[in-house]
Amino acid sequence: MVMDTLTEILLELGIDRPDIVEGAFLRKDLQLDSTETVQIALELKRRLGVNVKLEARQDTTIGQVCDKVVQAMSLNPAAT
């Protein structure tokens, strides 16, 4: 569910589906800038009801973002 939601967000940002793999880094591999990274965090909050902090100074993989979302959801059982 988390990966599906993140995939939808990345597709909306113009990332090609074959590039959306767990090991892909948001900046290095997908060429996302800080504004797009913030958009991802905002969309995750809107769609899943969780706050996920995506570090501006540290590149994160798609898998790590999913892990952060799952962790945030476990801390907030009201999240969908």
Give a written overview of the molecule.
It is a single chain. The protein has 80 residues and is an all-alpha fold. The protein has a single domain (2-75), classed as Orthogonal Bundle (Non-ribosomal Peptide Synthetase Peptidyl Carrier Protein, Chain A), CATH 1.10.1200. The protein has helices at 2-12, 34-48, 62-75. The chain is globular. The model has no long low-confidence stretch (mean pLDDT 93).
Which descriptors apply to this entry?
80 residues; mainly alpha; Non-ribosomal Peptide Synthetase Peptidyl Carrier Protein, Chain A; globular
Strand percentage lies at under 5%
Low-confidence stretches: none
CATH class: Mainly Alpha
> Overall mean pLDDT score?
93
Fraction of helical residues: 40-55%
Total strands: the figure is: 0
Which descriptor suits the 3D outline? globular
H-E order: HHH
Tell me the domain tally: 1
The DSSP helix count reads 3
Give the name of the CATH architecture: Orthogonal Bundle
Largest sheet: none
What is the CATH topology descriptor?
Non-ribosomal Peptide Synthetase Peptidyl Carrier Protein, Chain A
Structural class: mainly alpha
The end-to-end distance, rounded to whole angstroms, is: 10 Å
Topology:
Blueprint: H1 2-12, H2 34-48, H3 62-75
Helix pairs in contact: 1-2
Task: Describe the structure concisely.
The chain is mostly helical and 80 residues long. Helix content is 50%, strand content 0%.
